[in-house]
Design a protein that fits this description.
heterodimer; A: 297 residues; mainly alpha; MetI-like fold; 12 helices; B: 320 residues; alpha/beta; 10 helices; 23% strand
C-alpha cells in the first residue's frame, strides 16, 4: 500500500471520528462500552480470579448467600463465591464470545450475500438454497446439538453461533446488493471499463457497508444473548465464568425464591448495558457510512 | 476522406422481454467523422439511448445485437472482455442521463472523477490523479474545494458538470452525451451546452448528442439524425433539417417548438397527435403513417428506406 493511500485512510478515520464525536447517543454507547472493555481487561486488578473457586471461597471464610451489605461489593452466592468476581471475570467471556461470533457471522454472511447478489445466476441459486437450508433448521436445537457434539469450550461456542446465525445476514446483504447493482452508477463504472472486483470494492461494498454495520450491531447483542442462552442451558464452557453462566447458576440454585437479587441483577444489567451500547454505536456508525441518513450534513 | 471515428452499419437491436421480442433499433447506419458532431433526436422509446449504450456494449445481457459498430478502428461487437474494458472510456465515454443516479452517493465526487484514471492506470499515482481531478473540475467550472463534496451536496447543474469532467478524465476520442440537459432548468441547460461546445472545439472532441429536444441539437451539433420507431427517418446538416425538414415527422417535431416573437405559436404550439407505436407491434408500411398528416395509399405497401433529399441530406418518406 502506498503511503498516500495510508494517509487517505487516516484522514477518513479522522473524519469518521469527528462526525462520531458529534453524536450524543454514539458517545454514550462508546463510553459504556469502554467502561466494560476496561473492566474486562483490568479484571485481574479488580477481582482475584481465585474468588471464582468455591474451595478458595470456603477457605476464605466467606458467608453463604450474603447480600451486598454483608459482603462488599456485591454479596456472595450459594457456594460462598464473590458475585463481584463473577461479574468482572464474566464480562471477559461475554464480550469476547459476542464479538468473535459476530465477526464470524458477518464475514460468512457478507461474503455469501455479496457473491450471490453480484454474480447472480446459478451461483446465486446454489448459495441461496444453502442459506435457506440453514435458515429452516431450528436455530436453538442445532446450536445445542453442535455445542454438545463439538464439546463445551469457548471456541466451539463461537463457531456454533457463527455458523448458525449467518443466513439472515446473507439474505439481507444479497437483497441490498441486488438493488445497488441496478443503480446507474454501477452501469457508469462498468462503462468506464471497471472490472467486477473493482465494482464490488468501490461501489457495492461502500454502499452496503452501512447495512453490514447495522447488521453487526444487531448481531453482537444476539451473539451475546445466544452465548447467554447456551450457558443458561448448561452448554457453556464449564471452566469460563460468563454472565450467562451466572444467570444459569442463580436460576438453578433458587436465587429468585430466596430473593437474592444481588446474584442475578449485575449480570442481567451488564448484558443490557453492553447490548444497548453496541446498538447506539452501530446506529451512529451507520449514519456516518451513509451520509444521506445523517441530519447534520 | 479518412476513415470515420465511429461507423455504424445495419445495426439492429432486439430486447427479449417476458412479453416477447422487442425490436428497439431496426437497421440503422451512420458515420461520425473525427471532430464532427452528430445529434440523435426522437421521441421516448425510438431507440436513441439504446444506440448510445450499444456503442460501448452496455446493453443488458441477452439483448440481440446484429450489424457492425466500428469505433476508432476497433470492431466493438467482436472485442474480447479485456479489450472491451480497455476501450471503454478511452475510445468513447458517456455522459449519462440522470446525473444524480450516475454518481455513487457514498463517494466524494473527486474520488469518482479519479476512478477512470485508476481503472485505466492513466495516472501514475493518487497525487497525480488528484491533480488532474482539480484541473478537470476547474475546466468544467467547479471550484477545487468541491472535490471533497458528496454528490447530494451539489446542485443538479454541478452534478452534470462533474459527469462531464469524469467523461473527460481519460481523454476519450468520442463523447456520447445521453440527454445531458434533461431535468435541468433553462439557464443551467444553456451553461452546460456552452461548456460542451467549448470542450468540443478545445479538445477536438467528436460528439454524439442524444436528446428529444431538437432546438438543443441544432445548437450543439453540426449534423442531425431524427429517429422514429427504431429507424433513422431523416438525416442532414442540423440547421437545414430543423428549418426545412423533408420528413413530415421532423416537420412536426420542429413545429412543436414555439417561435420567439410569434404570439400564435406560443399560445398554441403545433403538436403531433397520437402516440409513437410500440416497438413490438409496428403498423404495416411506413410506421409513421397512422399519425402522418400527409399519409396516402403509397405509404402502405412497404416501409420506405432512406433516400437522398438534397445535398448531404436524406429522408425516409415516399414523398421525398
Amino acid at each position: 500500500m502506498t503511503t498516500l493511500a495510508m494517509q487517505r485512510r487516516r484522514a477518513t478515520a479522522g473524519r469518521v471520528w469527528k462526525q462520531f464525536r458529534g453524536s450524543k447517543g454514539g458517545m454514550i454507547g462508546l463510553g459504556v462500552l469502554l467502561l466494560f472493555v476496561v473492566m474486562a481487561l483490568a479484571a485481574p486488578l479488580l477481582a482475584d480470579a481465585r474468588e471464582l473457586s468455591p474451595v478458595f471461597a470456603r477457605a476464605q471464610g466467606n458467608p453463604q448467600w450474603a447480600p451486598p451489605s454483608e459482603f462488599a461489593p456485591l454479596g456472595t452466592d450459594y457456594i460462598r463465591r464473590s458475585v463481584w468476581a463473577q461479574f468482572v471475570w464474566g464480562s471477559r467471556v461475554s464480550l469476547f464470545v459476542g464479538l468473535a461470533a459476530t465477526v464470524l457471522t458477518i464475514l460468512i454472511g457478507s461474503v455469501v450475500g455479496i457473491i450471490a447478489g453480484f454474480v447472480g445466476g446459478r451461483p446465486d441459486a446454489a448459495l441461496m438454497r444453502l442459506t435457506e437450508w440453514f435458515l429452516v433448521i431450528p436455530f436453538l436445537p442445532l446450536a445445542i446439538v453442535l455445542a454438545s457434539v463439538l464439546g463445551r469450550n469457548v471456541w466451539n461456542i463461537i463457531f456454533v453461533i457463527g455458523v448458525t446465525s449467518w443466513p439472515s445476514t446473507a439474505r439481507l446483504i444479497r437483497a441490498q446488493v441486488l438493488t445497488v447493482k441496478q443503480r446507474l452508477f454501477v452501469d457508469r463504472a462498468r462503462s468506464l471499463g471497471a472490472s467486477g472486483s473493482h465494482i464490488v470494492n468501490h461501489h457495492i461494498l461502500p454502499n452496503v457497508m452501512g447495512l453490514i454495520l447495522a447488521n453487526a450491531t444487531l448481531a453482537v447483542p444476539i451473539s451475546i444473548l445466544t452465548e447467554t442462552t447456551l450457558a443458561f442451558l448448561g452448554l457453556g464452557d464449564p471452566s469460563a465464568a460468563s454472565w450467562g453462566k451466572t444467570l444459569e447458576e442463580a436460576f438453578v440454585n433458587g436465587a429468585l425464591s430466596r430473593n437474592a437479587w444481588w446474584y442475578f441483577v449485575p449480570a442481567g444489567l451488564g448484558i443490557l448495558a453492553v447490548v444497548l451500547a453496541f446498538t447506539l454505536i452501530g446506529r451512529t456508525l451507520e449514519e456516518i457510512a451513509n451520509p444521506r441518513l445523517s441530519r447534520s450534513r | 476522406m479518412s476513415e470515420p471515428l465511429l461507423s455504424v452499419r445495419d445495426l439492429s437491436i432486439t430486447y427479449h422481454s417476458h412479453g416477447g421480442a422487442v425490436p428497439a433499433v431496426r437497421g440503422v447506419s451512420f458515420d461520425v467523422e473525427k471532430g464532427d458532431s452528430l445529434g440523435l433526436a426522437g421521441e421516448s422509446g425510438c431507440g436513441k439511448s439504446t444506440i448510445a449504450n450499444s456503442i460501448l456494449r452496455l446493453l443488458p445481457a441477452g439483448t440481440e445485437v446484429a450489424g457492425q459498430i466500428a469505433l476508432d478502428g476497433k470492431d466493438v461487437l467482436g472485442l474480447s472482455p479485456g479489450g472491451l474494458r480497455a476501450a471503454r472510456w478511452t475510445s468513447g465515454a458517456i455522459i449519462f442521463q440522470g446525473a444524480l443516479h450516475a454518481l455513487n452517493p457514498v463517494q466524494t465526487v473527486g474520488e469518482q472523477i479519479a476512478e477512470p484514471m485508476l481503472v485505466h492506470k492513466t495516472a501514475p499515482n493518487e497525487a497525480a490523479a488528484r491533480k488532474r481531478v482539480i484541473e478537470l473540475l476547474g475546466r468544467v467550472g467547479i471550484s477545487a474545494a468541491r472535490a471533497d463534496s458528496y454528490p447530494h451536496q451539489l446542485s443538479g447543474g454541478q452534478r452534470q458538470r462533474v459527469l462531464i469532467a469524469m467523461a473527460l478524465a481519460c481523454d476519450p476520442l468520442l463523447l456520447i452525451a445521453d440527454e445531458p440537459t434533461t431535468a435541468l432548468d433553462l439557464m443551467v441547460q444553456a451553461q452546460v451546452l456552452a461548456l460542451l461546445d467549448d470542450l468540443k472545439h478545445e479538445r477536438e472532441l467528436t460528439l454524439m448528442f442524444i436528446t428529444h429536444d431538437l432546438s438543443v441539437l441544432t445548437y450543439a451539433c453540426r449534423r442531425l439524425a431524427v429517429m422514429y420507431a427504431g429507424r433513422i427517418v431523416e438525416e442532414g446538416p442540423a440547421w437545414e433539417v430543423f428549418e426545412n425538414a423533408s420528413h413530415p415527422y421532423t416537420r412536426a417535431l420542429a413545429a412543436a417548438f414555439p417561435t420567439i416573437g410569434d404570439e400564435t405559436s406560443r399560445m398554441a404550439p403545433a403538436g403531433l397527435g397520437g402516440d409513437p407505436p410500440t416497438p413490438g407491434n409496428l403498423p404495416e408500411g411506413c410506421p409513421f403513417h397512422p399519425r402522418c398528416p400527409l399519409a396516402h395509399d403509397a405509404c402502405l405497401p412497404a416501409e420506405p428506406g432512406l433516400r437522398s433529399s438534397g445535398l448531404e441530406r436524406s429522408a425516409a418518406c415516399v414523398l421525398v
